[in-house]
Write a structure and sequence with these properties.
This protein is mostly helical and 141 residues long. Helices cover 71% and strands 7% of the residues.
């Protein structure tokens, strides 16, 4: 891959992240990026502890603990004690958390639909697959 391609990818990623953050903050309600990803993961795969979340998101356990605690305070998550280890627990999403996540996802999907409405379906599929492949490369290294 030549330097021009890498520079283009770097710049376009920076612009994408900035625009995504800006658009999400204006239209998507009460969830920041971290909250959205934690809730989405728990909603999709079920109750989980902070150690597993930290590993999956490549974050410090203390960071994930703070984020999960903030979501618990808002009523979006609740703790499930581990019956074998009184100090350990997992987090599960609440009905309020499900509602907030659903509303946030709906808003995000509406915006993405607007942006990609003129793209052929084949290009949407390729774009999604390439984004997934790129994101996976972070976990593979």
């Amino acid at each position: 891959m030549n330097d021009n391609a890498l520079e283009m990818i770097e710049l376009e990623l920076a612009i994408l992240l900035r625009r995504t953050t800006s658009a999400t903050n204006k239209k998507s309600g009460n969830l920041d990026r971290a909250a959205y990803l934690l809730l989405r993961r728990i909603a999709m795969k079920g109750a989980v502890g902070v150690k597993v979340l930290a590993g999956e998101f490549q974050l410090d356990i203390s960071t994930v603990s703070r984020q999960a605690a903030a979501l618990e305070q808002k009523g979006y998550l609740y703790k499930i004690p581990d019956p074998l280890d009184g100090r350990a627990y997992t987090f599960q999403i609440t009905e309020l958390g499900q509602t907030e996540l659903h509303d946030h996802m709906k808003s995000r999907l509406e915006r993405i639909t607007e942006l990609l409405q003129d793209w052929p379906e084949e290009e949407r599929q390729v774009f999604g697959k390439l984004l997934r492949k790129f994101n996976q490369s972070f976990l593979d290294r």
